[in-house]
Amino acid sequence: MPIRTGQQYIDRIDALNTYISLDGEVVRGKVSEHPAFKGVMQSQAKLFDLQHHQELLETMTYESPTSKERVGVSFLQVITSEDLVKRRYAAQEWALSSHGFMGRSPDYMNTTLMALASASDFLKDKPNCFPEHLLQFYDYAREHDLTMTHTFIEPQVNRKRYYIEDEEVTIAAKIVGKTSKGLIIKGARLLATQGGITDELLVLSTNGYDEWKAFGFSIPSNTAGLKFLCRQSFVGGDSTFDHPLSARFEEMDTIVVFDDVIVPWERVFYYENVDVANDFMNVSGFQAYTLHQVLSRQIAKTEFVLGVVQSIVDTINIGDYQHVQQKVVDIIVTLETMKALLLKSEIEAQRDQFGFVRPDLSTLQVAIQIFPKVYPTFTEIIQLLGASGLMSIPSAQAFAKDEGDLAYYLQSFQDGGEERVQKFRLAWDLTMSSFGTRQTLYERFFFGDPIRLSSILYKNYDRGHLVKRVENFLADNM
Predict the structure, then answer these.
(1) I need a labelling partner for 268 at 20 to 30 A (CA). Which of 55, 301, 413, 448 fits?
(2) Which 3 state secondary structure label does DSSP give 149?
(3) d(C-alpha 390, C-alpha 400), whole Å
(4) What is the mean pLDDT of the chain?
(5) Could you tell me if 250 and 233 are in contact, meaning their C-beta atoms sit under 8 angstroms apart?
(6) At 153, phi and psi to the nearest 5?
(7) Residue 170: pLDDT band with limits 50, 70, 90
(8) 3-state DSSP call for residue 238?
(9) CA 437/CA 456 separation, integer angstroms
């Protein structure tokens, strides 16, 4: 099957009949028609449809090396620098469609799988490792245009650095048995965004000390015993006037429960190998490739934030104030810095040990230091500029029944009352609604704990030649 349409995506997810629990109730019927999921699924469907636009065919797709069908560029392995640029163009096109609000758009996980498959040689000849299974699944996902979510972390039971769960306790998902059919997994994992509305769940151990928790595999979302337990939905309602963002882009976050789930052996990439579980993600191009996609999305999101901010400035005519100008410029500086870092990562790309071209990781690690810190300031800027205007935001129903008071008294320098409120409701949904505050938390921790990311950059950034330069300078003065 080549690239699929949006309707094919929706039909396939509906047909899975995945176990999804929301507010204590199991979701019955078509998940695409449920109020908590229909908006984001419709937005995701538009992404698949973009792949079929004739003018975007070369941007969004390429010829499969096996089937010769058109498949999504987000699966493209990077053989040349041109491939990296092609991936950026495709990622930007999808990011613009959602304005960067869908952190788990399909290209993120497609990129993850591509990165792991490109490093499959690392698994060769290692105990309990099956590189051929990983490559087979990568090929299958690409040829069927699958959607995936993932779960990489354990429940927050005990954050002590060397905490090891008692063998008799099963909270974090672990191997509890092996049969001729496959591994038996029991326990829970966090935090699958879009859990229940994707074809597959990719499960990887990223660190640890326990053999029974060291595994990597992918299984269909409707696998027997697999449950997705949802947080409260942040969809404010169907009205895109009242809830312009949450009605379209609310990506559910779920706890994943494995109730004696059998993972078929052909879907197991590795198991009971602590060294591989700790090292594979780092040795692979996972960080470099996914950060390249993430930065493309965050640029689109920053552009949207800048547009919202300028809309507020224009509609209430506050652009002559210097403190307002400074706030707008702060966003502009962030935007242009991120654009420059993305291009720099491509310019300094190098071929890795597996023969593929990776964007420069240090450059992308610098970029991921910036956005989690500045995104919360974006929300503060919008609140400071919007002020009481973010409180005076009647609903669409109020305007429909209004006899003219709202339209008159809520008008602005530039807009009528309803047009002004529509802009401010967008700003409110971006920064103050449940959806908006979740976005801020999401971006703070999107790629992990910021302090841990700083530590990784500190340890990996090459500074030895700079120290040598200083030593040579001092030696010349002696």
Answers:
(1) 448
(2) strand
(3) 20
(4) 95
(5) yes
(6) -120, 160
(7) confident
(8) coil
(9) 27
Q: What tokens appear for 430 in the block?
A: 């971006």
Q: Which residues of 405-434 are buried (b: 16+ CB within 10 A; e: fewer)?
A: ebbeebbbeebebbebbbbbbbbbbbbbbb
Q: Does residue 228 come out as left (phi exceeding 0), alpha (psi in the -120 to 50 range) or beta?
A: beta
Cα Rg of the chain (Å, integer) = 24
Residue 152, pLDDT score: 84
Instruction: Determine contact, residues 41/114, Cβ cutoff 8 Å.
Output: no
Give the Cα separation of 113 and 437 in Å (integer).
30
Phi and psi dihedrals of 120, rounded to 5?
Answer: -60, -25
Query: Three-class SS of residue 76?
Result: coil
pLDDT at 163 over 80: no
Contact between 354 and 119 under an 8 Å Cβ cutoff? The reply is: yes
Structure tokens at 109: 């996980």
Q: Token pair for residue 397?
A: 């129903």
What's the mean pLDDT in 31-53?
98
Spatial distance between the Cα atoms of 194 and 132, rounded to a whole number of angstroms: 28
DSSP 8-state assignment for residue 457: H
The secondary structure of residue 153, as a DSSP letter, is B
- Of the listed ranges 155-164, 165-174, 227-236, 468-477, the least confidently predicted one is 155-164
Is the separation of the CB atoms in 90 and 293 below 8 Å?
no
Three-state SS at 254: strand
Q: Which token pair is 452?
A: 């841990």
DSSP letter (8 states) at residue 3: S
What does the alpha-carbon distance between residue 250 and residue 108 come to, in Å, rounded to a whole number? 17
Q: For residue 405, which amino acid is it?
A: D
Q: Count other C-beta atoms under 10 Å from residue 268's C-beta.
A: 21
> Residue 478: which pLDDT band, with cuts at 50, 70 and 90?
low
Q: Do 214 and 203 meet the contact criterion of CB atoms below 8 Å apart? A: no
* 3-class state of residue 256 by DSSP: strand
Residue among 178, 320, 150, 335 at smallest CA distance from 261:
178
Centre a 10 Å sphere on the Cβ of residue 82 and count the other Cβ atoms it contains.
11
**Residues 299-327: tens digit of each pLDDT:** 999 999 999 999 999 999 999 999 999 99
How far apart are alpha carbons 411 and 404 in whole angstroms? 11
Structure token digits, residue 346:
């491509």
Identify the bridge partners of residue 227 per DSSP, sorted by sequence position. Answer: 257
